[in-house]
Amino acid sequence: MPRIKLCGLRRLVDIDYANQVQPDLVGVVFAPESFRAVTGDQAQRLRQRLDAKIPMVGVFTTTPLARIMTLVQAGIIQQVQLHGPINDDRVTALQAAKIPVMQAVTPVNATQSQANTVLLDNVNPGSGQPLAWSAIARPKRPFFLAGGLTPDNVTNAIQVLQPAGVDVSSGIETAGVKDFKKIQVFMRSVRNVNNN
Questions:
Q1: Annotated catalytic residue within 7, 14, 24, 89
Q2: Ranges for the N-(5'phosphoribosyl) anthranilate isomerase (PRAI) domain (predicted)?
Q3: Contact 58, 25 (CB under 8 A)
Q4: Is residue 88 among the annotated active site residues?
C-alpha cells in the first residue's frame, strides 16, 4: 500500500487541507531557490497547525547540517529530505541523530544513497515533468516516487512501478497554490489503487 506525501505546503490553509485528507507525510521546502520555500518561523506555525499524528518532512538542498538539526530539535520537522549531490556524510550524521532521511535520486543514481528511503524524482524536482515510468528500472529497495505525479496519472504510475510511497507537489496545484479538489482526487486515486 503506497504511502502518500503531500509536499510544498506553505500556507495555513494547505495544512487545513492536509488535516482533512490525512496523508502519511507532509513536506515543507527550505530550499531558498524554490518559490515554495518557507522560513523556520513559517514552518513552526505550519507544524503547530498540523495534526500531531502526521510527520512533517523538511526538504533541503544546501542548508547547513546544524540548521537542519535545529529544526528537528525544535520539533518543527520529524524527517529530512535531501536534494542535490548525494553526500553520505550528511546522511550518516542525520541518521546518527536518529533522524529518518529521504534522499532524492534520479533513475541513474538510485542505488548510490545510504538514506533510509530514496525518492525517485526528475533531474529538476518540482518541475511537474513526469518521469518515463515504463522506461526506468525499478530500484531494488523501497522507494517513493515523485516526478510529475497528478490525480490523472498516479494510478498508472503505481501500477507500473509499485512504489512504497508517492510524493506530489505541483500536481495538486492550480496557478502555483495547493488546490483542495485536486488533493482530494489524488488521495482518492491512490487509495483506490490500494483497495483494488
A1: 7
A2: 5-187
A3: no
A4: no
Residue with cell 508517492: 166
C-alpha cell at 188: 482518492
Kindly report, residue by residue over 16-47, the tens digit of the pLDDT.
999 999 999 999 999 999 999 999 999 999 99
Report the Cα 35 to chain-centroid distance in Å: 16
- How does pLDDT run across 113-147, given as a tens digit for each residue? 889 999 998 766 555 666 677 667 777 788 999 98
Q: In CATH, which superfamily holds the domain spanning 3-195?
A: Aldolase class I (3.20.20.70)
121, 152, 167, 179: the active-site residue: 121
Domain extents in the chain: 3-195
pLDDT tens profile 151-185: 999 999 999 899 999 999 999 999 999 999 999 99
